[in-house]
Amino acid sequence: MSPLTALAGPRQVGKSTLIDQVLEECTLPHYLYNADGVDENDTDWIRRVWESARIQMDTRQQTEAILVIDEIQKIKRWSEIVKRERSDEVDYIVASQGTAIALEVKSGRRGMNSRLPKFCENFHPRRALVIGTDGIPFKEFFHMKIEDLL
Q: At what angle do helices 78-85 and 44-59 cross, to 10 degrees?
């Protein structure tokens, strides 16, 4: 369920209506949840929703789907939880002639948690590279030819 998109705006301008209309026209499978009646302190609710969508996708053998959580801002610390659940995200994907490689750029402390293994498990790119800290030095990477990456 990537990429992540947020629709934000003032109250009562039609955000939920817009989402409903988009989903009505969408050919991808979709899962719609609403946090309206959820206790604001139930931070595990988002994880349960995410897991429910994953299980439904597996059961229905779906390779892609759209997960919509309406009124998610009502759950405390929702953005932290979403970041934790999206463990399959990498920084860049390079695709050429049906081949994909995943690139994760690290410019911080050594040994920072990498999301690359989870991404590879889910999407099976031909190659996965870490660039920067704990990986290919930036200077070397910028001198590489695209053919060498693939």
A: 30
